[in-house]
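Late entry, written up from scratch paper. The run itself happened at the end of the previous shift, but nothing got recorded in the book at the time, so transcribing now.
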Amino acid sequence: FENPFLLSSAPPTESESNITRAFEAGWGGVVTKTIGLHPVVNVYGAKAKFMRTTPDDGNVSMKKRPGAALHSSWNWELISDKTLEWWAPRIRRIKEAFPNKVLIASIMAGSGNDKELRHWQELAETAQGEGADGLELNFSCPHMDRRDMGSNIGKDQGLCSVVTEAVKEVAKVPVWCKLTPATADIVIEAAACFRGGADAIVSSNTFPSIPLIDPETLEFEINVDGLVSSGGLGGPAILPLALAKMAQLTKAFPDKSFSGIGGVSDFNQAASYFLLGCGTVQVCTAAMLDQAVGPNVIKRLLSGLDKFIEAHAKDGWKSIEDFRGIRRDRIVLQSEIRRPDTADYHSGYETVEG
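Output as recorded:
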């Protein structure tokens, strides 16, 4: 990577023109919007909106109000509505124009039978054949109806392993698995991906959620004909949640590779992911609000990284590798945190003798 900052698979990476602008702006890598064999038809109307909060009362709403600060993004947009045949020549042209940048193809298919596993392989073979530097398997989209697609794969360790293994059979480039945060123990699914041969884990995608109900109209703030379905929450609101998931992963697999995502708009947030053990960080919401591809966001990230390393020059730091993961071991069990009056741990239950 030219630098460790990537645009994540999302609306900012849905077209050749956007990806071109992103690379020209300075992003080290781009993950395409998820490509499938069967183009989707999205819902009528808005696919994404931003929620903001007012400082005086903490009210969160999609309604635009003066003085409100960004709280989060919410979307129910599906994968790319373009065909694999549409994407293939564009991947090739992008790589020809930017040979030193990293272009990762996000792909997704069903996983209910051997035919659908072959779909994953077809997507992988085409993307890498056109020059993609890596593959990101979408096990995390929170609004797929089928039980064997998107986040429903990411909740099933068996499917995680089987799909990853199928892709690795044909892959000649690194394979990343993007996991859903909506699982009881993300370490279990990550372990399954690694068993299947994954080269890295990406976390977190958006968190499953629904929009708020307007108390005046009694309608959901975003809806079609009054109806809603599950969507994904992203942006600043999910940062602590996404960091908790990443901490679980990097502590469980300290020698593996991770790409962190969720709530990043400048280096202050990105630093937490690196300090927990990530090698790269991905951005979506902040970029969407900055000319669609985040030219000012990447400037802040690169400037912040340079200043951070410069501030720690006395420690001998010259790159991310010098501080990557140095804080993950400070995340411990509650019982290991010092108490004010006694070294003994008491947490509301009877201590078992012996």
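The mean pLDDT is 96.
(Scratch paper discarded after transcription.)
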